[in-house]
Design a protein that fits this description.
Layout (H helix, E strand, L loop, with lengths): L5 H5 L1 H16 L14 H14 L5 H6 L4 H5 L6 H17 L4 H18 L8
This protein binds protoporphyrin IX containing FE.
Length: about 130
């Protein structure tokens, strides 16, 4: 027998789906994030569900369809500033509140996402 993965422990497909919907609703309304995302976030959300599924130990849905995530490389076409990383994480934290993802697992997952978000930064904040 093996331990539950974080994917299983938070509620699997259902929780990931609710979380990602709650997240992109906020991204699409965020003044600093919306401009770099497509107007229609359906496909973005679909890919993010696949990615987070495997990131949290579930099935390799993202890699099966898109190959190695190479997340930093896939973000290079966008100006990811420290301010945008902060905004991304704030949308994620609010989405976690909405779907009532709490406790130790939330803390652990959010910490990991914080490191990943920092790793995506490729552009300094504007001065002034
Ligand atoms: C795609 C922004 C952090 C996972 C994207 C796209 C943008 C973006 C603009 C393209 C959307 C599209 O064309 O559909 C940002 C910003 C971040 C950030 C501003 C702030 C740090 C993250 C983090 C993760 C992540 C922390 C993972 C936990 C993804 C995935 C995709 C994506 C899986 C889809 C890649 C693909 O096209 O296959 N992101 N992102 N992003 N992002 Fe982020």
């Amino acid at each position: 027998k093996r331990d539950m993965t974080p994917y299983e422990a938070i509620g699997g497909e259902h929780m990931i789906s609710d979380l990602v919907e709650a997240f992109y609703k906020r991204v699409g309304n965020h003044p600093d994030l919306a401009p770099i995302f497509p107007d229609d976030l359906t496909e973005t959300a679909r890919k993010q569900k696949q990615f987070l599924t495997q990131y949290l130990g579930g099935p390799s849905d993202y890699t099966n369809e898109h190959g190695h995530p190479m997340l930093r490389a896939r973000h290079l076409p966008f100006e990811i500033t420290p301010a945008r990383a902060k905004a991304w994480l704030s949308c994620m934290s609010d989405a976690m509140d909405e779907v009532e993802l709490d406790g130790m697992l939330r803390t652990q997952i959010f910490h990991r996402l914080t490191l990943t978000a920092q790793h995506m930064v490729n552009t300094p904040d504007e001065e002034g």
